[in-house]
Amino acid sequence: MTTVNVPGLPFPLVPEGAPGCAHEVTGDALRLTTGARTDLFLDPAGLTDPSDVGRLVGVPPEGDFSLTARARVGFASTYDAGVLLVHAGERRWAKLCFEYSPQRVPTAVTVVTRGTSDDANAFEVEGDALWLRVTRTGAAWAFHASTDGRWWRLLRYFSLHEAEETGGKPARVGFLAQSPTGEGCAATFDRIAFTPSAPTDLRDGS
């Protein structure tokens, strides 16, 4: 199996999902390019077929951690996004997205999937970049986003109950790009960093 080593990560990533996505590591940056009509979403109303998308994910070390990256996305179509992903199974995963809204505004968005997906818009973003952070703290997960990489807004605090899906195997974390309504999308992640601890207070902006 092909592995991808990304500067800033202490564990390798592997390609999963279909259709696959192209990837390139240049310097400290990871660039993912996905094709047309690609998404990872299970509509709670059952109006669409289950979807899948190529991604790069890996198993982080045991214990608490935070994974951060700055995302830049070549927005063209609604719901184009660069994503940090927690993936525990076919119907159990969560996305932290820098996404193009139907109003054609870059937006911080989260999706948590346990059987079906939800969809929660957080805040609109001025500019072409957004810092994203995934934290594991005990049995829980937290999603934060930041416009400057210093002050972090808590967007979601949740559990995937991944043991129910994986039989005790750890969830994988990583990156994806999506283009549900468009002809493809490229997302670049840089300033990637892994910290083997969680913030002491998830809600104080640190």
UniProtKB/TrEMBL annotation:
Pfam families linked to this entry: DUF1349
InterPro entries (alphabetical): ConA-like_dom_sf, DUF1349
Domain of life, source organism: Bacteria
PANTHER family: REGULATION OF ENOLASE PROTEIN 1 (PTHR35332:SF2)
Protein's name according to its UniProt entry: DUF1349 domain-containing protein
Phylogenetic placement of the source organism: Bacteria, Bacillati, Actinomycetota, Actinomycetes, Kitasatosporales
